Amino acid sequence: MVVALLAVLTSTTPATAAVDEYVLYATVTTSGSGKGQTLTDLAGRYLGDTGRADELFNLNSGRRQPDGKALTDPDRLTPGWYVVLPWDAVGPGVQYGVLPTRPPDPSAPAPSTGPGNPQAVPDPLPTSRPGGKCVAATVASDRSTWATTRLAADRVWPRTRGAGQLVAVVDSGVDGRLPQLTGRVAQGADLVSGGRRGDSDCLGTGTAMAGLIAANAPSGGGFAGIAPDAVVLPIRIVTDGKPVGPADQATAIEVAASAGATVIALGDHVAVTDEGVRRAIEQALSRDIVVIAGAPAGAENAGAAELLPEYLLLVGGVSADGKAAEEYATDTVDVVAPGVNVSSLGITGTTGFVGSGTRYAVALAAGEAALVRAAHPRLSAVQVARRIVLTADGMGGAPTGSPYGHGMIDPEAAVVRDLPDETESVPPESAGTSGGVAGASTVAQIAILFTMVVAVVAGAVLVVRLRRSTRRRDDGPDEQSVAAEPASAPEPETSAPNGGGR
User: Fold this and answer.
1) What's the DSSP call for residue 155?
2) 108 and 36 in contact (C-beta within 8 Å)?
3) Nearest to 228 by CA among 194, 183, 170, 290
4) Which of 29, 145, 212, 234 could crosslink 198 through cysteines, CB 3.0-4.6 Å?
C-alpha cells in the first residue's frame, strides 16, 4: 500500500503538476441534449454545486489538452478533453490515475467505478468529510496569541521561512481548503479508509497542527505558522478520536518517510513506546529525518525513558504560566513548547481553533525544525535536533529531569546561534562515487575521525545526546553516526552528526 500511495502523496497544485501525477479527472463528453458540456455542467454533476465551476476553471485553465489546445473559456469545452477534478468529486465517470495525454478511444467502454478497474475511483469519495465516523470538531472559544508571541518566529523569517521542507503530520488529516494553507498542503494519505488523500479533516486536530507549522497570514495580517513556506504532508490515522492500532501508527511513519518528509510530527495517537512504532521511528531517523513526538505521560509510562529511540526528539507542552500540560514520565522531555490554550486554524465550517495538548507543542517544534533545516541544509537530522535542544531557553534554570527538559524552544536562536563545535555535513557532490552502504560508511568514518581530532585539539566539546537512558546533558563526545538508508532514501547526505549516533 505504501508504494501505491507515493504517487499522490505530495501534490499540492494539480493544475501545474508533473505529467506522471495521479489525479481525479473526468472526460468531457456531450450533454444529454447533444450540446457540449460546460464547467457548470461538470460542477453540478461531480461536485453537486454548479457554483464551483470557477474552481474547476482554476484547476484546468491553461493545461494543454491532447488536441494541443487549452481551456480559456469556461463555457466552451471540447469532447475528448480531460478535466482535473477536486478531491471530493464523486459519480460515474470520475477516474483516478495519471492524466492521459492521448484522446480517449471512442470504441472503449465507459470506465467502471468498481474496484476491478485501477483507473476508476473504487467507491464514492466523501463530499465534505473523510471516510470513517467523525466527531464534532473543536472550535474556538477565547483565542490567545501567547504561543506565537512567546516564540516570535517572525524574527528569523528574513533569513528562513522553511521553504523546501516537507513536514509530515501524523494525526487526523489536514483541511487543505483553508485559504491560509493554500499551496502548503500536499495530498497526503488516509490510512483510515485505505489510501485516499489526507488533505481533509473532520476532527480538527491535524489541521490545527498544520496551521501552527505552515499557515500563511492573509494579506491584512493575522495568524501565521512557525515556518509559513514549508509544505505539510497530512497522514490521517484517525477520524473519531478512538485508539489507533500500532500497525497503522508504524505504517503512517513509513509512508511519511518514503514520501520524502524532512520532518515528521507525530500526534497524540502515536504510541512511541510500542515496539513496531519504535522500529518505524528508528528507520526514519536512519534516513536523516527529524522525528518529533510528545513525551510519554501518565503512570503507565513510568520507565519509558529506557524504551525510546535515542534520537527521537520528545517535546512537552506548557501553559503561559509555565505549568506542564501533562504529567510527563521522568527523564523523557527534551524541550517544551506552548501546549495549553494554543490558537490555530479551524477546519472549514468553524470559526477557528483553541486547544490544549502535547500535539500542539510537537507541531511548533516541527515548525522550528523546518526553519533550521532550510537555513542549514547540510546539517544532519541529529544535528538539527541537537540545535533545538542546545538553543532552548532554560526556563529560569529549571533543574535537569524537570518537566521542562532543556527548556522552551527558541526558533530564532536555533537558526542564528553559532555552535562552534558543530561540523556541517559533507556536500553530496563531494561525497565520492561510491554508492550504497559502503560509500556511506567510508564518508562517515572520515567524518568521525575528523570529529575525534577536533575534540582532542579543542580539549572539551559540549555534546548533547538525546539518549533515553538518562535524558540529561552528556559532556562526553560520541563518535558514532546515524547511517543513511541506501537506495530507498532520496539522495541522503552521508556524514557523522556532531555528537550523535546509534
Assistant:
1) G
2) no
3) 183
4) 234
Q: How far, in Å, CA of 349 to CA of 211, rounded?
A: 16
Q: E strands along 319-415, which residues?
A: 335-338, 342-344, 353-355
Distance between first and last Cα of the chain: 30
Which stretches within 154-286 are classed as H helix?
205-214, 246-258, 275-286
Instruction: Answer yes or no: are the C-beta atoms of 38 and 75 closer than 8 Å.
Output: yes
Question: Beta strand pairing status for 263-266 and 189-190?
Answer: unpaired
312 alpha carbon, distance to own chain's centre: 16
Give residue-wise pLDDT tens across range 257-277: 999 999 999 999 999 999 999
Collapsing DSSP to helix, strand or coil, 96 comes out as strand
Cell numbers for 262, please give them. Answer: 524532512
Residue 149 reports pLDDT greater than 60: yes
**What is the pLDDT at residue 475?**
39
The pLDDT of residue 449 is 30
Pairing of strands 166-171, 263-266: parallel
In 3-state terms the chain splits into helix, strand, coil percentages (rounded to 5) of 30, 15, 55
For residue 153, count other CB atoms closer than 10 A to its CB: 25
Strand-by-strand arrangement of the 166-171 sheet: 189-190, 231-236, 166-171, 263-266, 290-294, 313-318, 335-338
Of 343, 364, 308, 361, nearest in space to 167 by CA = 364
Residue type, 232: V
Residue 257's CB is within 10 A of a number of other CB atoms, namely: 25
Q: What is the DSSP letter of 377?
A: T
pLDDT of residue 305: 81
The C-alpha cell at 388 is 533545538
Which amino acid, 92? P
What one-character DSSP code corresponds to residue 401? T
3-class SS at 302?
coil
